[in-house]
Amino acid sequence: MGAEQMADGTDRASGAEGGEGAVPAPSPTPPPAFPPTAPPATLPPRPLDAIDRDILRILRADGRASVRSVAERVHVSRANAYARINRLIDDGVIRGFSARVNEERAGQGASAYITLKIVQNSWRAVREQLQGLPGATHIALVSGDFDVLLLVHTADNRTLRELVLTRLQAIPEVLSTRTLLVFEETDLDQGTPGSQGPPPRAPL
């Protein structure tokens, strides 16, 4: 891959060490209930009980599940389930609802995790630029031998190569990158390779 070494080597010489150290989801017409809101920054975490965790498990597997079906499956009243879901949203436990996409079926045939070493104390500046990258789906500041972990999906390896060599390495605060190609993914919520959840259905 030219200047970049895919999967088993760094892309360019490293410099200084660094780094700062799914309730009704949108259907064709999004329902008015449960608008995700950002919790106060100082709000302490609230312990979840077994029913809360069961609700979260159900919604991870099917974000379009109706309140009625959730209530029946966790053996509480509809009003109780409704209140619990709203509370999980208000507390910031549920951050929002989205579609689980099969990237390959959506035309994104190449996926990769990319590790980055960055200039010390430059995380916020780097994060802002990474958020604008086409195909970027997850960004994390981590500890260890590198500073940032980035997950990207692109149409093919050529597009991936261009993203790394012309976009990532053009960021001044990025000292080095390493690209790890993804050959297969398993969705742990569903437990089967390549699973993207049940087919969508309208809430009851």
The protein's oligomeric status is single chain
Counting DSSP E segments of at least 2 residues, the number of strands comes to 6
Largest beta sheet, briefly? 4 strands, antiparallel
What is the structural class? alpha+beta
* Lateral arrangement of strands in the main beta sheet: 2-3-1-4
Question: What is the CA–CA distance across the termini?
Answer: 51 Å
- Count of DSSP-assigned helices: 5
Task: Compute the CA-based radius of gyration.
Answer: 20 Å
The coarse silhouette is elongated
Outline the low-pLDDT stretches: 1-22, 24-33, 191-204
Mean pLDDT level: 78
- Proportion of β residues? 15-25%
Helix content: 25-40%
Run of helices and strands: HHHEHEEHEEE
Explain what this protein looks like in three dimensions.
With 204 residues, the chain is α+β, with helices and mostly antiparallel strands. Helices cover 25% and strands 17% of the residues. The protein has helices at residues 50-61, 67-74, 78-90, 123-130, 157-167, and strands spanning 110-118, 136-141, 148-154, 174-181, 186-187, 192-193. The strands form two sheets. The protein has a four-stranded antiparallel β-sheet. The chain has a two-stranded antiparallel sheet with strand order 5-6. The relative contact order is 0.21.
